Amino acid sequence: MSNALRGRRRAASAIRNTSLAALSMACVIGLGTNASEARSQKSWRNAQASISSGHSFSGVASYYGNESGNSTASGQRFNQNAMTAAHRTLPFGTRLKVTHGSRSVVVTVNDRGPFIRGRVLDLSKGAAHAIGLTGRGVGRVVAEVQ
Hints:
- The protein has helices at residues 3-42, 125-130; strands spanning 56-64, 84-86, 95-100, 103-111, 119-124, 138-145.
- By secondary structure, it is of the alpha/beta class.
- The chain folds into two domains: 1-42; 56-145, Barwin-like endoglucanases.
- Strands 1-5-2-4-3-6 form a six-stranded mixed beta barrel.
- It starts with a helix and ends with a strand.
- 20% of the residues are buried.
């Protein structure tokens, strides 16, 4: 093989290596930025936004009660008969007036959830029973911050 051919191959190899290194660096930098943005936008664990009284939202709620005695995300022991609820982002201790049909109950947010798409609240079994939600297990509710 001639020296000229070897020189051209080395140059081509150097260009490929440089291009691959630059592309790899761009991917790492790009992914790092997007990953941190995604973490900050989707993190429900650190969501402690304050919410003013009178704010309301509606959607589908479900209930849970088999976890009685386990710790909630707030550190309290879960009591299935208490008037409590789980919400993805509302601060712990937020009181909500939850209405289903013509029945209402005031609950305190002490857990995180629900983790099923399309649901806005997980009520304790006691709260769900108070508004008549235990028959079907899920139902449309309106929640108002107290």
